[in-house]
Amino acid sequence: FNVANTAVAPDGFSRVGVIVNGGFPGTLIQANKDDTLHIAVNDQLTDPTMR
1, 21, 24, 36: which one has the fewest Cβ atoms less than 10 Å from its Cβ? Predict the structure, then answer.
């Protein structure tokens, strides 16, 4: 997953938000109880308040 910050306007008002793989909202990850998940994340966040 590529995680980055960019301008988003989900309610019509622009603000900086987090996008995953170029989209907002991010990709849904589903799992069942006792599942083990291995998720590779490419942190492209540049806003220091989002780290």
Answer: 36
